[in-house]
Amino acid sequence: MEKPQDIFSTNDDHIDDIVTEKYLVESKESASHVQLACSKHDCAFPLNGNELCIWNTKNPFNQLLILRGHHQSITAVTFGNKVNPLLICSASEDYVILWNLDECKEKVLQGLIPRGIVIGTLLGKVLCLRFSPDDHIVAVCAGNKIFMLDIEVWDHCKGTLIYNSSVLTAYPLLSLFIHEESKQLVTGCADGQLWIFSLIERHHYRCVTRIDLRKKRDSFCTKKVKSGLCSQLEESQLSSTNELEKVEKTEVTFPVLTLEHCDLSFNLNSESEFLSSENTKCLWIGSSAGLFIFNLANFELEAVLHYKDYRSLSIKVVGSCAIMNKTVDQKVFCLLTSLFGNKIAVLKINLAALVRSQQCPDMGKNLSVLASSCVLPTSPLYFGSVEKKSTKPASQKQSAVRNVIKDQPLVFHNKVRSSGYTTSPHVTMFSPKTNVKNDSKRSSKCKQSYKCKKYPLEISLPTKLSKQVVLAHEPTAACCIQYSGDGQRLACGLANHLLLVFDASLNGTPAVFSGHDGAVSSAGWSHDRKWLVSASQDKTLRIWSVRSTELTLLLGKGMFSKPIQFAQFYYIDSFLLLSSGPELHLLKYHIDTCKDEIKRYKQKSKFKPVHTLSMTNAVEITSLSAVNDFYSYVVFTAGWNRTLEIFDLNAGCSAAVIPEAHSRPVHQICQNKGSPFTAQQSEAYNLFITTAIGDGIKLWDLRTLRCERHFEGHANRCYPCGVSFSPCGQYIACGAEDRSAYVYDMGSSTYFHKLAGHTDTVTSVAFSPTASQLATATLDGKLQLFQAE
User: In Å, how far are 88, 146, 557, 740 from 126, measured between CA atoms?
Assistant: First the structure.
């Protein structure tokens, strides 16, 4: 063991609560652009060119183990995967040497010189080393060749190339990581780009997504400032950050120097527990300017650490980086070398403190889709109540799902196919009406005659095309499709001004509802399935009788200055909910089907505006979603400024705002509304998805207002394509521009199944609430029905 004079250590843990420089060494030669290595308790790096230096983090004396055997400068170092024995391999242009670390330590204690085993000679400049999972083979990358060096036995069944990728970028690839659980390959480039590929066999190594690290960093910092997360430490560092703005402008990219597993095996918040070791798949990204924690589930940054923000650090610009993939007491060690000097430093990072300090506050902790309190007397939803009766406390009422578990945010389990969040408990079928208003009239109105038919969870997904019909004589786009609550009928709004209603099997002639003068932008069923509401670009809203196909209520063009984009029944058919321009309208309505022969053309049905809300900054609403199958106060909206806004209609005001939810405006919000024919845990109803052109699909949790998963892979760059939740809550379907529909599993960011056979862009999708069926509609006016094989 040696402790050179040009080495000093800093053991003051009070310098900073997040980052501490534990060790610093000045080498005779620069170790920049050298592959460094870290194991659970050891850091390995070249010292003075040809000496291999090992620093053990548990050594109380901070002594170094120096291994000599190379004559030329070491260019790559790596640790083995096993702990006993712990192997380390070092490479230079002359030798590739294998060391048994335990044996080397014993020889040093005995006063002997440790020796390694030369397993390769004169291979050229080695850029990268990697052990096989069983530590029997070392892969050596030298120049444009890869050598497989045997340690004990090499029994490769096949040594042929399985895939050859085209040129990804003009910049060199600097790092590579394979995530076995998600079956994804991540590679980092010198221009700061991350490329993520799917390793699932039937996906043919397709590119899932490409991430610009600089843009992600800028977006993360912007959200951090807007949410008021700048700590006192960061505020004190703003002056130093401003001084480095000129340097920042000249820094074009964040080269991805290393990729490593990030171990978040601890609870960051005992109450919310939104990050869990078993469920959060994160990576460390080491770059020249800082460290990043990247979430593979939602493709977002969880934390950012800039070296320049910590004055106690000796290295501000990094040439090489290595990070431990395991935490010790929620701490992790990072090994850095200077880009422009000869310094080598070891940092101790308090991972829990780093991530906790940069997480958004739990802004949605008091929000829930399921109503859990009485309607306030000042609430817009209180309108129309004749008798004011006292209601029981929410705790005494029948729960939406009887086996209510502790309310906790969305997490995903990697041991099962789905997230586990929507696994159906073995209880009575779902009926979350939450009768918060003890009104006998309304309660009797809400009684249903659903048969206790369980949704088929055990059968396979609907992947077989069973039926296809043409919607019109001439090609016309299908703008929306929706199943009725009992799954017996399917409504389809068309661009040719018509609204069609099919039998669920698509057999027979559809019922035709005509009268609109513009494309039917939305269609919705009433809870009792007697009425249909449709909105059109002609600035009108119409309610139709399903049985007679007659118009029963018309909201004319003069009522709204802009087209009605979305309309639906709300609060178990008590209200109409619609959006026009930047405004959200709540209307009370009364339908009268009696006919007066004298005044046969006079409309007897009535409506009355109850409440109007506007989005923040008065931006136009692009999407709207609310639950009608049970009592819920929450309404989701999206605006042209890429913002999501949640309204609480019990309080009659905005409850939360999510800025920059997507890179483009959201064109559809879809809630996990469940089905009367299957049961879900109560937490599952707080999940909702959003989709935007060119930005995939995002899964959100209302209680944390966080994007929990990002679904990428379907082509959607020009035309708005629809999305749909399965009744069991385990799958998401979406349309695409490559004449296919895609089905995603909630526990994976890559698609689970691809449904081909369409003739044009798939614009709308809808799961049946009663059977394993999926309906899809295309831009050329065709309706397809997929069933389980």
Answer: 15, 10, 73, 45
